[in-house]
Specification:
The complex is a heterotrimer of chains A (295), B (425) and C (332).
Chain A lengths: L2 H32 L6 H19 L3 H22 L9 H23 L12 E3 L4 E3 H23 L1 H11 L1 H6 L4 H26 L10 H13 L5 H22 L7 H19 L9
Chain B lengths: L1 H24 L4 E7 L6 H20 L4 E3 L2 E3 L1 E7 L4 H13 L5 E3 L4 H13 L3 E4 L15 E3 L9 H10 L5 E7 L2 H16 L3 E8 L7 H9 L4 E5 L2 H13 L6 E5 L5 H7 L7 E4 L9 H6 L3 E2 L4 H12 L6 H20 L4 H10 L2 E3 L2 E3 L14 E6 L2 E6 L15 H5 L8
Parallel strand pairs in B: 1-4, 1-5, 5-6, 6-7, 8-9, 8-10, 10-11, 13-14
Antiparallel strand pairs in B: 2-3, 12-16, 14-15, 16-17
Helix pairs in contact in B: 2-11, 2-12, 3-4, 12-13
Chain C lengths: L2 H5 L3 H17 L4 H24 L6 H19 L7 H25 L4 H22 L8 E2 L1 H41 L1 H11 L1 H6 L4 H28 L1 E2 L1 H4 L3 H13 L6 H19 L4 H15 L3 H10 L10
Antiparallel strand pairs in C: 1-2
Helix pairs in contact in C: 2-3, 2-7, 3-7, 3-10, 3-12, 3-13, 4-5, 4-10, 5-10, 7-8, 7-10, 8-10, 12-13, 12-15
């Protein structure tokens, strides 16, 4: 390993980490408001990937244009699933909500399979590259990162400066208190779930800008697991925590590769995966509210 | 006179008796069972397999006229259930196929893992067990009596590629190996490493990456630093696309890049476009491969089954117009060699069929078939090497099967982005 | 009837079901493997239920214990087949399976059982994935290539016995393990552990205040559940399939199947996981036969309907209906 390689890996990790972080915000938002872990998370990421793929190949629209489209699709799906299923599961035992969200994921995967088949797909949106001497950075990746940061910032603004956002925040902090203060808690639940799903589907678009291949109905499982680790790192109930935890996760994943590669007899790549889950457990052991948690 | 009559009568009786016993000995039909993976993680490979099998069974029944057994021709039937790519389901379906549907031979489910899963049950009920998607050599080191391998074993996947590159450019000595971390790809890597060392290559990089990997950047930047001439790698579909795509993203250029499995599929070029130009990959079979009755005759082998064109046409009847890939071909070869073995054995007794399998050496549209009589390991079939040239897959190795010449070295990714195609002059 | 005997009445329907399964398997050709699959699902449900059903905590890394059990059997046969142990090698495998599963359970329990429900679920997923990558990354136990031990089994026992072990005795053992799990479940439900866990499930804080050592009882249930899973893994995946590959052994979908079975039948009940396992296994099998390729699309909405409309499961509902009838003591 050289310093150049480590530097290159860290830059790539930072960019990817930002996208990972954005891809986890929806999960954290839903948990923060509804106290439900969305085990079907990855399936929604997959839907976003297909939105980007389909818009690009069928209509020639760039992934940038796919971002609002994905948000709309995602929020529609979110409202649909909320009013059909999730509404009944608020406050239910973990067992019930975990199983229900998992089943939602399966339904999405199977429906997409019926429409698009099981082929692995990809698209080519080539907009040039930047040579950073330690590594080469395609601009599409950079745009994905910028998009992620922008969405995180918009969400921050929405939470703090708008009425709806403030209502959501008050429910996160104290749902009974919010109810007393006249907040329509049922609507906040619906809106938060839809927004959470919307963000997750949107993140699918951004992820394909980073990795525009391997798009398949069953591609989401990996992202569910990554999102869990990142969400816990960020405190599970905090969307911004999740964003910054994503960046940290990306840096750790890529940085540790270079270090593990120095140890003979190890498979560095598998070890980076091991490390991420070891960190997960360590965080839960010493600081269950997350690395960036407040409590 | 009297003796003549009695001789005739006796003869007639004998013929009658013989034909009667033949009548009793001949089954009404021969059935092949298959716990096919139509859903779950091997849904793609499984669907392809079912098209190939249906195509070849149709050929047996309509062109060959059925299975010739005990002097009669009886139809061949295909009985299948979806095993969801899951091991619990595989064992119970194999038992159902043998005990309730009374099939005479079984085509194993896709993948080495599921093939091993079903093997003990097939062994217990003495059922011929044909592996069309279990490439692992280890399956055939376990001492199974009824297991027969149709496709080339994993250790031979990259042998042809290395032979070819060695011949084309003896000066390129530095090889990097970067395979998926799994039983199949590691077996391929081991075979490739040994073969490369035998040819005098220098292994400058050897790493693996986990299944379902989503970002290969850290591995690839280390790989770049090792400055290889040739990269051999891959594992399955998704990681292969990712591998090529991120090579392009990081602008890593080598003289030859060979990825197993992914490269051979049309979806690879669809997903990557021009970035796929010049990439090579080993394939069990490829559309347009030159195996034909004349080629068989040259090698002194018997030809059996449909020609390549016939096979593709038949398979497309079942696939809804999709073109069959090598998963269809390797599975389709199974009923062909099975029928041949049954006809040679003249019986449906599994031990006799297995014995006949051991002696079989023939050529089908899928290539040569010959197994090691003791273990069932495939030793006759050889891999072909394909290369993407101008958006088309061209068979470049072995010379006997080739439809074109290798484009070497591979154009750089920058050249490809400017529209350069890997078409040899 | 004495009180001691009535205590065991609820076992009757469970064992009756197992007996019927065994008789069908033995008597009808081609049914053995199907019955084995059903028993496997019942056993997994029961083992899972002891922790998940009784505490309400979701162990999403449950399959890791099955995997460790499989490795226990694989390591025993692969490495020690030359020792003159005879069938003892299988017993050694079982022992290894239980010990490894229990050790992991103790470690995980110490960390994760202090956490709330959602955190616990995620932590256990982390254990499952982490353990798998540890095996692959450090290349212990065959690394990503796993262990295939058909040959060692054949060499040790000969073809006949090896086949019989894989296709008969392994399945019978799972049935015995399932029966054992039922006994343990009953013992827990009717004993101190059950009361403590029931109090915990209703209100963990209140249980603590009442002076119940919550962590102790959670750990007891967790370790028991893990040990049973280890045994099931050793037999149903180890001895039966004669190989272990890490990505398959740690496949999270089995955890989900376990949850579905427990929920379907009725969490925390004795009969529930058995009914759930039967229904789930049969549905899966028949959908496979009649509608290949569409099982999951049919299953998923059913799961949602079940968890939303009947959270107490089939046996939970049945118990309500049977209250005050002569059947009441049989259904638990």
């Amino acid at each position: 390993m050289t310093w150049e390689q480590l530097g290159g890996n860290l830059i790539q990790g930072l960019i990817l980490g930002g996208v990972y972080g954005m891809a986890t915000m929806g999960l954290s938002l839903i948990f923060g408001v509804l106290r439900v872990v969305n085990v079907g998370h990855g399936a929604f990421v997959m839907v976003g990937a297909f939105v980007a793929f389909w818009l690009f190949t069928a209509l020639g629209l760039t992934p940038i244009a796919a971002i609002p489209a994905a948000l709309v699709v995602g929020m529609a799906l979110g409202f649909l699933f909320f009013y059909s299923v999730m509404r009944r599961l608020v406050g239910a035992p973990e067992l019930t909500s975990l199983l229900a969200t998992f089943a939602m994921g399966i339904i999405l995967e199977e429906v997409v399979k019926l429409i698009f088949g099981t082929e692995f797909r990809g698209y080519n949106w080539d907009v040039g590259k930047m040579d950073l001497s330690v590594t080469v950075l395609p601009l599409a990746k950079l745009y994905a990162f910028i998009g992620s940061v922008a969405i995180a910032a918009l969400l921050y603004f929405w939470f703090n400066r708008t009425r709806a956002g403030t209502a959501v925040r008050s429910v996160v902090e104290d749902s009974e208190g919010a109810r007393v203060c006249g907040v329509n808690v049922g609507w906040v639940y619906a809106l938060s779930f839809a927004l959470g799903i919307g963000l997750t589907v949107t993140s699918g678009v951004l992820l394909t800008m980073f990795i525009p291949v391997g798009i398949n109905p069953y591609m989401g499982g990996v992202y569910t697991l990554k999102a869990f680790v990142i969400a816990v790192l960020g405190g599970l109930a905090s969307p911004y925590g999740a964003f910054f935890a994503g960046v940290i996760f990306g840096l750790i994943e890529n940085g540790s590769y270079s270090l593990f590669a120095l140890v003979p007899g190890l498979e560095p790549f598998a070890m980076t995966r091991f490390l991420s889950f070891a960190i997960l457990l360590l965080i839960l052991l010493i600081r269950p509210t997350g690395l960036l948690g407040t409590k | 006179m009297r003796s003549k009559i009695s001789a005739v009568v006796l003869g007639l009786l004998l013929v009658a008796a013989l034909s009667w016993s033949a009548e009793a000995g001949a089954p009404a039909k021969v059935v092949i069972g298959h716990p096919v993976c139509l859903s779950g993680k091997f849904a793609k490979e499984g669907s392809q397999a079912s098209w190939g099998i249906k195509a070849c069974i149709k050929w047996i029944n309509e062109v060959h006229g059925g299975v010739k057994i005990a002097g009669k021709r009886v139809p061949l039937e295909y009985k299948f259930y979806d095993s969801e790519s899951k091991k619990e389901v595989v064992t119970s379906l194999i038992e159902r196929l043998v005990r309730i549907d009374k099939v005479h031979g079984i085509i194993a489910p896709y993948s080495s893992g599921l093939t091993i899963t079903g093997a003990p049950v097939a062994e217990r009920y003495r059922a011929i067990y044909m592996s069309h998607g279990g490439a692992s050599n280890r399956i055939f080191q376990q001492g199974y009596r009824y297991a027969v391998q149709i496709l080339s074993p994993a250790t031979l996947y990259q042998a042809g590629t290395l032979d070819m590159l060695h011949k084309v450019d003896p000066g390129a000595r530095r090889i990097a190996l970067a395979f998926e971390d799994g039983e199949f790809a590691r077996m391929v890597m081991r075979g490739a490493e040994e073969h490369a060392k035998g040819l005098g290559y220098k292994i400058v990089f050897k790493r693996t990456y986990p299944k379902k990997v989503t970002d290969l950047t850290p591995l690839l930047s280390d790989l770049r630093a090792a400055k290889p001439d040739i990269i051999l790698g891959g594992g399955h579909f998704q990681d292969g696309q990712l591998f090529a795509r991120q090579m392009a993203d990081l602008d890593i250029n080598v003289k030859a890049l060979s990825l197993i499995v992914a490269v051979t599929l049309p979806a690879f070029y669809d997903a990557l476009g021009a970035k796929a130009e010049g990439l090579i990959g080993p394939a069990q079979w490829e559309f347009g491969v030159k195996y034909n009755p004349a080629e068989a005759k040259k090698l002194g082998l018997e030809w059996f089954g449909p020609t390549n064109e016939e096979f593709v046409k038949l398979a497309m009847e079942f696939s809804g117009g999709k073109r069959p890939d090598y998963h269809a071909a390797e599975a389709g070869a199974a009923p062909l060699v099975f029928v041949k073995a049954v006809e040679e054995a003249g019986s449906l007794d599994p031990d006799k069929i297995r014995e006949a399998f051991g002696k079989l050496h023939l050529m089908t549209f899928f290539g040569e078939f010959k197994i090691d009589p003791d273990t069932g390991l495939q030793v006759g079939h050889s891999m072909v090497v394909v290369q993407w040239q101008g958006g088309k897959k061209v068979i470049v190795w072995p010379p006997a099967a080739a439809t074109g010449k290798l484009y070497y070295p591979m154009p750089t990714f920058a050249e490809k982005a400017k529209g350069k195609k890997a078409i040899p002059k | 009837m004495t009180r001691g005997a009535t205590k065991y009445l609820p076992l009757l329907p469970v064992y009756l079901i197992y007996l019927v399964l065994f008789l069908v398997a033995e008597g009808m050709p081609g049914m053995w493997q199907l019955m084995a699959m059903l028993v496997f699902y019942c056993a997994v449900g029961q083992a899972f239920n002891i922790f998940l059903g009784m505490t309400g905590y979701v162990n999403f890394g449950y399959v890791a214990f099955l995997a460790l059990g499989t490795y226990g059997m694989a390591l025993s046969i692969y490495h020690f087949h030359q020792l003159p142990l005879g069938v003892g090698i299988v017993l050694l495998g079982l022992l290894l399976a239980v010990v490894m599963a229990v050790l992991l359970a103790l470690m995980v329990g110490a960390v994760a059982l202090r956490l709330g429900g959602a955190y616990f679920a995620i932590a256990t997923i982390g254990v499952n994935e982490g353990f798998r990558y540890l095996i692959e990354g450090t290349k212990i136990w065959g690394g990503s290539e796993g262990i295939i031990f058909s040959k060692q089994l054949l060499d040790t026992f000969g073809r006949e016995v090896a086949n019989k072990l894989s296709t008969f005795w392994a399945d019978v053992s799972v049935l015995i393990i399932a029966a054992l799990a039922a006994l343990i479940t009953l013992h827990f439900i009717r004993g101190k552990t059950g009361y403590a866990l029931m109090a915990l499930r209703e209100d963990e804080e209140a249980a603590k205040v009442m002076g119940i050592n919550v962590t102790k009882y959670k750990l007891i249930a967790f370790v028991t559940s893990a040990a049973l899973a280890g045994l099931i893994g050793a037999m149903a995946w180890g001895l039966k399939l004669t190989y272990v590959f890490p990505p398959e052994a740690f496949d999270i979908s089995y955890t989900v199947e376990g949850i579905i079975i427990v929920m379907l039948g009725g969490a925390g009940t004795l009969l529930g996981p058995v009914v759930g396992g039967l229904l789930y296994g049969l549905a899966k099998y028949w959908l496979t036969v009649i509608l290949p390729g569409f099982q999951l699309l049919i299953f998923a909405p059913i799961i949602i309907v079940v968890v939303v409309a009947f959270p107490e499961g089939i046996v939970g509902m049945l118990r309500q209906r049977l209250k005050g009838t002569p059947f009441e003591p049989f259904v638990l």
